[in-house]
Specification:
The chain is α/β, with parallel strands linked by helices. Helix content is about 35%, strand content about 20%. The protein has a domain of about 150 residues: Rossmann fold (3-Layer(aba) Sandwich), CATH 3.40.50. The strands form 2 sheets. A 6-stranded parallel beta sheet has the order 3-2-1-7-8-9, sandwiched between helices. It has a 3-stranded antiparallel beta sheet with strand order 5-4-6. The two termini are about 15 Å apart. GO terms for molecular function: NAD-dependent protein lysine deacetylase activity.
């Protein structure tokens, strides 16, 4: 029985699936992964992405942060791909209970997924640091320099978790809850190198841990089923 057939069978037999995904789920929608070789390193910036996307850089050089952020992080024309659509379909069929994602692009929701736990926040939520007013991604994209609140003039910060910032506690607890109760955990499009997110899979107690990735990860040996390939292509088979 090849990997895809096993995957199909397991999905058929399960009604409490959780999907845990990373940047590889969105690269198939044309959103660059700045950790990959052809990611954001072919750049016109004086600092590496990890530096620019850090809390201390944001505090020190907001204008430079926003120049990069508008240019590279706001991919508002991106559309959900086969993986996003299949996961929404599995949720609608009552099989998938939650999507836990490291992505900030909102494509899971755009595909129709309802229960999406965004570990690293979302570019679609931005708030004034002075009065708390909320703004969408479009507002940030159309602003120039440091975006400011149209009500109080305070500076606006994206609701995304920057390097050096902690994850939202409630989102983490929810993710732990869903993963620890799942009968099947599908992990796709993530290098499993970013903590604390990668540590979440330690909470899975079942025996159907599926890893779908184009490259190897440090946790391959723990998978009950390992499939190397494109997450969209693999999930489309289900």
């Amino acid at each position: 029985m090849d990997g895809i057939e096993t995957l199909k069978q397991w999905v058929m037999d399960s009604d409490n699936i959780v999907f845990f995904g990373g940047a590889g789920v969105s690269t198939e929608s044309g959103i660059p992964d700045f950790r990959s070789v052809d990611g954001l390193y072919n750049q016109k910036y004086d600092y590496p992405p990890e530096t620019i996307l850090s809390h201390s850089f944001y505090m020190r050089k907001k204008e430079e942060f926003y120049r990069f952020y508008r240019d590279k992080m706001l991919c508002l024309d991106a559309k959900p791909n086969a993986a996003h659509k299949k996961l929404a379909e599995l949720e609608a069929a009552g099989k998938l209970k939650a999507v836990v994602t490291q992505n900030i692009d909102g494509l899971h929701q755009a595909a129709g997924s309802k229960k999406v736990l965004e570990l690293h926040g979302s570019v679609h939520r931005n708030y004034c640091q002075s009065c708390g007013k909320l703004f969408d991604a479009e507002y940030i994209l159309k602003s120039s320099g440091i975006p400011t609140c149209d009500e109080c003039g305070g500076s606006i910060k994206p609701d995304v978790v920057l390097y050096e910032e902690g994850l939202d506690q409630q989102t983490l607890e929810d993710a732990v809850y869903y993963i620890s109760h799942a009968d099947m955990l599908i992990i796709g499009g993530t290098s499993l190198a970013v903590y604390p997110a990668a540590g979440l899979i330690d909470y899975y107690r079942g025996n159907k841990l599926v890893l779908i990735n184009k490259s190897t990860t440090p946790l391959d040996s723990r998978a009950d089923l390992l499939i190397q390939g494109s997450i969209g292509a693999v999930l489309s088979e289900v």
